[in-house]
Amino acid sequence: MESKVFLHSGRNALQWSLFLLSVASLHIIFATSTGHTEHVVDTLIDVLRASVPKLTIEKRRAESVKSEDLLKGDVLLLACGTWNTGGTEGQLNPHMHALLKEKAKDVDLQKKPCILVALGDNRYFYTARAMEHLMQFVTQHNGMTVDSLVIVNDPYGQEEKVTKWAQKLPSKVPALAS
């Protein structure tokens, strides 16, 4: 198959460059086993696609991500439920733990704006402690937490909470509104 390269010149090149610069991107990395975290992320994506149509959104599971993937996009969103792994409650999902504590332990987020989403269960003392772990990672790796959301208990039925929060994101995170 023959491949063709098209060169843009003059006014078209300028318009194309401005278009590329004006399109913001959100890179979402999430960990889930029950589908709860993915449901919250998908609800968020639906709201953002409706309110910021030009926004480019990429969603990836933590287990398929490399450390350099944390640097993709203009804004990074990390989403994870709180787990009781290793005999201690209040931990990250094992896939998010492996990514942040092992694979990406040396990554520099370079002041990247980060949005955090944590889920939890009020049956436990450390209800949504995943948020603490996510914030600690962003802070220790030179990122900037710009907003966060905590969902306690089953997220099904809490879509309105996610929607209201997501609708405010473009005004709180200017990189998303461009």
Overall description:
Helix 2 packs across helix 5. The longest helix is centred in the N-terminal third of the chain and has 16 residues. The N terminus is likely disordered. Strand 5, helix 4 and strand 6 form a beta-alpha-beta unit. With about 180 residues, this protein is α/β, with parallel strands linked by helices. Strands 1, 2, 3, 4, 5 and 6 form a 6-stranded mixed beta sheet that branches. The protein contains 6 helices and 6 strands. The protein has a single domain, classed as Rossmann fold.
| Integer count of domains | 1
Count of helical stretches: 6
Residue share in β-strands: 15-25%
| H/E element sequence | HEHEEEHEHEHH
DSSP summary, beta strand count: 6
What is the CATH class name?
Alpha Beta
The description of the largest β-sheet is: 6 strands, mixed
CATH superfamily: Flavodoxin domain
**C-alpha termini separation:** 38 Å
CATH architecture group name: 3-Layer(aba) Sandwich
The helical percent reads 25-40%
Rg over CA atoms, rounded to whole Å, is 18 Å
